[in-house]
Design a protein that fits this description.
Distance between the termini: 51 Å
Helix content: 10-25%
Number of strands: 0
Strand content: under 5%
Radius of gyration: 19 Å
Number of helices: 1
């Protein structure tokens, strides 16, 4: 799916056209970019104009909210009917 420079996550409104979500992003390389022709921006977490940007498959992982959800459920059960 092509991403424009201003693309945002529909859930959290995070910018998507960023170095950290690019297939060329490699923190072990100079400027954290394995594309030799690119002129990488300084801020790797902000939207940029890099013409070599390629979305990396699996770049984003949903946070695990299971522990927090379980704790909320336990609290609701604990205080259910105690008004």
């Amino acid at each position: 799916m092509p991403l424009s420079r201003i693309s945002e996550c529909l859930g959290c409104r995070a910018e998507l056209h960023v170095c950290r979500l690019c297939g060329f992003f490699d923190p072990r390389k100079a400027e954290s970019c394995s594309e030799q022709r690119a002129d990488p921006p300084k801020d790797k977490q902000r939207a940029n104009l890099c013409e070599y940007f390629q979305p990396r498959v699996g770049a984003w992982q949903a946070p695990d909210h299971s522990a927090a959800d379980q704790a909320k459920d336990e609290l609701q059960e604990l205080f259910r009917g105690k008004r």
